[in-house]
Amino acid sequence: MACEKIQDLLSPYLDGELTREEKAAVEAHLSCCRECAELLSLLRVATESLAAFPEVEPAPVLKGKLYSIPDRKKKFRIGLDFLVKPALQPVLAAATVLLIIFSFYMFGPYKKDIDKTVNRQIHRGYSQVERLYAKAGSVTDNLGAYANDIFVSLKKINPLGKNEE
Amino acid sequence: MLVDMYSKKVFNMAYQFCGSYQEAEDLTQDIFLKLYRQLDKYDFGKNFTAWLLTLVKNYLIDNYRRTKWEKRQREDFDERLHSAPAAGGPETGMLEADNKKILWEGMNRLSPDIRMAIILKEIQGKKYEEVAEIMGLPVGTVKSRINRGRLQLAKILHDKKEKTHGL
Fold first, then answer.
1. pLDDT on residue A21
2. For an interface test with A, which of B157, B160, B162 has the most A Cβ atoms less than 10 Å from its Cβ?
3. Whole-angstrom distance, CA of residue B139 vs CA of residue B116
4. Residue A69 and residue B36: Cβ atoms within 8 Å?
5. Mean pLDDT of chain B
6. Rg of chain A in Å (alpha carbons)
7. Element holding B121 (H helix, E strand)
8. pLDDT digits (tens, 9 = 90+) for A124-147
9. Which residues of A touch B74 (CB under 8 A)?
10. Which of B140, B97, B104 is nearest to B123 (CA)?
């Protein structure tokens, strides 16, 4: 087997996770390859040295700071508790969306164009309303004229069949 | 209670990962702050230690990516990391201390994921399955990361020793 393949097997070899055949192949290679044998010995040194790193004791001051974290958290929450109430969440979400849209409008590059379009739309709407109002006036006039005509026609009708003269 | 039971574990993991005592203290505080915030998300059916160590691992790796620690030096290897004197006498003790120093500095050259796997498996002595649970990865992936990490560290040891002998 080539050195590269053997080197990939060295770690499982150390862990004792190779099959009998793989183990035999690795050992056969190690007996004739100095480089791989040296790598195995360095791997052993590395794993043994890492395992010998002792646990370090944290400073007592740190423990004191850690104990005080829940109190600090409580103090912080007293003033802002109302913000995390579930009932307020939809309102806050809507406010956030509005704020984002508003900031896009305020600080975006298209503020002038938006202003112009809105202005144009408002004016168009206003003139449409005016036109509608004028139309409504003429319809009212026409209705008045029709009412008069109907009134006159009704007067002319003689229900008893008498001659007007 | 949480502080008594887990502060040493969290602090050591942070220290082994970042290599600076001061930084590890700051990180431990940040991690405990996050732990208190996330406690209500803990599923009581799960192993608490594994859940906590996953939280620690995520925080350390995210923070590493944010702050780019790889550009910083690890703190000097000091007496805090020396274990009991070696049985083979002062010469063996010095050799062991040298190896530890090289490995301690070499840890900074490992990618954050490989470094974390090496810390959990080699320094903290966890089983592959435990490392896989903490890292949220399949056991095969963890084994391959640890294999790569071990080879990298062995090569670092080799290069350093060659340099020393060459001088």
1. 93
2. B157
3. 14
4. yes
5. 86
6. 47
7. none
8. 999 999 999 999 999 999 999 899
9. none
10. B104
**For residue A21, how many other CB atoms are within 10 A of its CB?**
8
Which chain A residues contact residue B28 at CB under 8 A? 58, 62, 66
- CA separation, residue B77 to residues B42, B71, B94 (Å): 36, 18, 13
Written as six digits, the tokens of A142 are: 């026409």
d(CA A89, CA A97) in angstroms, rounded, equals 12
Q: How far is B156 from chain A (nearest CA, A)?
A: 10
Distance from CA of B98 to the nearest CA of A (A): 10
Q: Which two three-digit tokens encode residue A6? A: 């053997």
Distances (CA, A) of B105 to A147, B74, B114: 104, 6, 15
d(CA B55, CA A127): 64
Q: Which DSSP state fits A158?
A: -
Report the residue of chain B nearest A39, measured CA to CA.
B154
State pTM to two decimals: 0.68
DSSP notation for A5-70? HHHHHHHHHHHT-S-HHHHHHHHHHHHH-HHHHHHHHHHHHHHHHHHTPPPPPPPHHHHHHHHTHH
Nearest-10 crossing angle of helices A3-15, A34-51: 30
Q: How many helices (H) and strands (E) does chain B have?
A: 7, 0
Q: Is B3 near chain A, with CB under 8 Å?
A: yes
Residue among B86, B90, B89, B150 at smallest CA distance from A41:
B150
Q: State pLDDT tens for residues B5-38.
A: 899 999 999 999 998 888 899 999 999 999 998 8
